[in-house]
Amino acid sequence: MFYGAVVWDPWLIVAQIVCLQCLYYLTLGVFLSFLVGIRVSRMSLVYFFDFASVTTSTVTGWCVIASFLLSSIAGAGYMLYLIERAKKCLDFSATLYIIHLFICIMYGGWPSSITWWVVNGTGVAVMALLGEYLCIRRELREIPITRYRSNV
C-alpha cells in the first residue's frame, strides 16, 4: 500500500481495471453456474449481458439478480486487495459497471428494463460502499512497531 505523493501510473490503472473486470465476470459466472445452471438446460451469455434475463417475474430471473448482487459483494472484496485505497473504490466500481453497460449495449441493445437498472445501480452502490468500508478498516489499522532490545 502506498500513501502520500504518488506518481500517476496509467498502466497500473488499466491493469487494475482489467483485473477487476475479469474477476467480476469470473465470479459472476461461478454464481450463475450454481444458481441459474441448475434451473436451465443450457447456460449462455444471455444471462451475463442480456437485460431481459434480469427479471422479477421468474425464479430464474431472481437467481440472475442474486448472482449479480453476490458478484458485487465479491467485487468489493477484490477491491480490498487490488485497489487498496478507499477513495478510489467508487471510481473503479463505476468504471466496472460502465464497461458492463457498454458490453450489454453491444450484446442486446439499450437496457430498457427498469429491473436491470435497479439491479446494476444497487450493484454499483454495494460494491463501492462495501469496498470503501473494507479499505477504510484496513487503512485505519494500527501499524505494528516492534522494539528490539539491544544487548549492549
UniProtKB/TrEMBL annotation:
Keyword Transmembrane helix: yes
Biological process (GO), any one: protein localization to Golgi apparatus
Keywords, alphabetical: Golgi apparatus, Membrane, Protein transport, Transmembrane, Transmembrane helix, Transport
Regions that span the bilayer: 12-39, 59-83, 90-110, 116-136
Lineage per the UniProt record: Eukaryota, Viridiplantae, Streptophyta, Embryophyta, Tracheophyta
Name this protein carries in UniProt: Protein SYS1 homolog
Family (UniProt): Belongs to the SYS1 family.
Organism: Gossypium tomentosum (Hawaiian cotton)
GO CC annotation terms, alphabetical: cytosol; Golgi membrane; trans-Golgi network
Membrane topology field: Multi-pass membrane protein
